[in-house]
Amino acid sequence: MAHPETGYERQVALYGQVPALSPGINDPTTAVHALSHSSALLCELAQRDLSPHVLRDDHGRIRVVLRRPTLAELLHLAMAQPLRYGAAEPAVLARLYMLLRELAWHSRHEQRPTIAAHLAHVRSTAAAQEIRPDDRADLADLADSADQALTGHWPPTAP
């Protein structure tokens, strides 16, 4: 039996990308790399039962209820600060779109509205940025591919 993950372990994994985007460092490459790790973790957790875990005593009485964070909470944790601090970086926006596409592909039907809401938020944030037209077109394509993944389609990418 695998040991249960603690909230602290998740926070360390998901907050790893934030220092890379702080004004003193501003390293989009590290943020993109950290978002890749967040994506892998979220895709794994999307397939797990994250409902509360109930522990009972020898008589069957409930003694402890361990609340686990929902996928929506974890997704917010993974995306909020990178989007805030990396919104002007096309590479960070691209990786956020890819994270949502990957998560959509691994998600269950009931999880998809949360993913769609985050996709809409990234789109509106990206639209407010001054981004070169060719980068904007690439980002629009990635956003569209995330939309398609939400409907169960994963289009091939150009070589």
Describe the structure.
There is one protein chain. By secondary structure, the protein is mainly alpha-helical. It has one domain (7-150). The protein contains six helices and two strands; from the N terminus they run ααββαααα. The protein has helices at 7-15, 28-46, 71-86, 90-106, 112-127, 133-150, and strands spanning 53-56, 62-66. The protein has a two-stranded antiparallel ribbon. Helix 1 (7-15) runs parallel beside helix 3 and helix 4 packs antiparallel against helix 5. The radius of gyration is 18 Å and the shape is elongated. The chain starts with 6 loop residues before the first helix and ends in a 9-residue tail after the last helix.
The ordered string of helix (H) and strand (E) elements is HHEEHHHH
- Number of H/I helices: 6
The outline comes out as elongated
Beta-strand portion reads 5-15%
Indicate the low-confidence ranges by residue numbers: none
Mean pLDDT: 87
Number of domains in the coordinates? 1
Please state the structural category: mainly alpha
Counting DSSP E segments of at least 2 residues, the number of strands comes to: 2
Instruction: Output the strand order for the largest sheet.
Output: 1-2
Measured between the Cα atoms of the first and last residue, the distance is 41 Å
Largest sheet features: 2 strands, antiparallel
> Which radius of gyration do the C-alpha atoms yield?
18 Å
- Roughly how much helix do the residues carry, as a percent range? 55-70%
